[in-house]
Write a structure and sequence with these properties.
about 90 residues; alpha+beta; 3 strands
């Protein structure tokens, strides 16, 4: 996978929750964790447990350089970068 694929995969996870406003009213962090983020094989469970900010975690760390965090001001999940990105394969 390329760096572009990694960020796209993270956004796809966000979209599963953000685009289902009836199923995830106001981002519903407990439901988002239980149904989507906690089940993804991309999850870095150890780091999320250590640095995720509570139960359920509001920062989800993925095994790539990206993660997902809940923004209380917008009630949306967004992608953040938590590691170095190799852009040599992006053209």
């Amino acid at each position: 996978m390329t760096a572009w694929d990694d960020v796209e995969a993270a956004w796809q996870l966000c979209d599963q929750v953000n685009n289902d406003e009836e199923g995830y009213v106001d981002g519903d962090p407990p439901k988002a964790w239980a149904n989507v983020f906690g089940k993804t094989p991309m999850l870095d469970a150890d780091r999320t447990q250590r640095e995720g900010g509570g139960v359920p975690p509001l920062r989800i760390f993925l095994k790539t350089a990206y993660g997902i965090e809940f923004r209380p001001d917008t009630k949306k999940w967004i992608v953040f970068r938590h590691g170095p990105v190799d852009i040599s394969d992006i053209t």
